[in-house]
């Protein structure tokens, strides 16, 4: 999880991003123009910035040099969807370029990719007597290692990285299995049952009726 600055002059979009990132465990700050963004990065540490391009005053393309000087990786979020703009954003040094409107799950996954690449994600997840070390792929319960299959572990990590979000079985297959699957999704149900039993997580791996599953973690 990371501390993320959201720079977007559309408050409704910014607030929605804050809500979703907070749900999965990130902390956030908001800025609504270039001047405010520069003030934030001068006084506070950030692991990542989600940066709109069309901002009042100094735009996102002009701001990226300031973020690079502060070693803050940038993901552009923009309605500017031309190939020229996307190429320009990446050539200027952005880690990624996401076109509005976007799916929340896609945004969260791309954020996780950048944080892992930058070595700025938090690799330890704990809940009561269970510790998951995502760097070592190690799961402990009451200080004893729990043996998970590779697929069980992938599903567990997918749910942790998207905690408090309801995910369909198809989304879990795509994230944890690495492919889109249009047939039988019962394999997800079977692996969820095994995780609940092995970890004692019947209370937090919730079934979302006629939809999928959610790892419901109390936010501190």
From TrEMBL:
SUPFAM superfamilies in the record: CheY-like
Species: Anaeromicropila herbilytica
Keywords of the record: DNA-binding, Phosphoprotein, Transcription, Transcription regulation, Two-component regulatory system
UniProt GO BP: regulation of DNA-templated transcription
Protein name as it appears in the record: Stage 0 sporulation protein A homolog
UniProt cross-references to InterPro entries, sorted A to Z: CheY-like_superfamily (IPR011006), OmpR/PhoB-type_DNA-bd (IPR001867), Sig_transdc_resp-reg_receiver (IPR001789), WalR-like (IPR039420), WH-like_DNA-bd_sf (IPR036388)
Function: May play the central regulatory role in sporulation. It may be an element of the effector pathway responsible for the activation of sporulation genes in response to nutritional stress. Spo0A may act in concert with spo0H (a sigma factor) to control the expression of some genes that are critical to the sporulation process.
Gene3D superfamilies: 3.40.50.2300, 6.10.250.690, Winged helix-like DNA-binding domain superfamily/Winged helix DNA-binding domain
Top-level taxonomic group: Bacteria
Span of domain OmpR/PhoB-type: 122-217
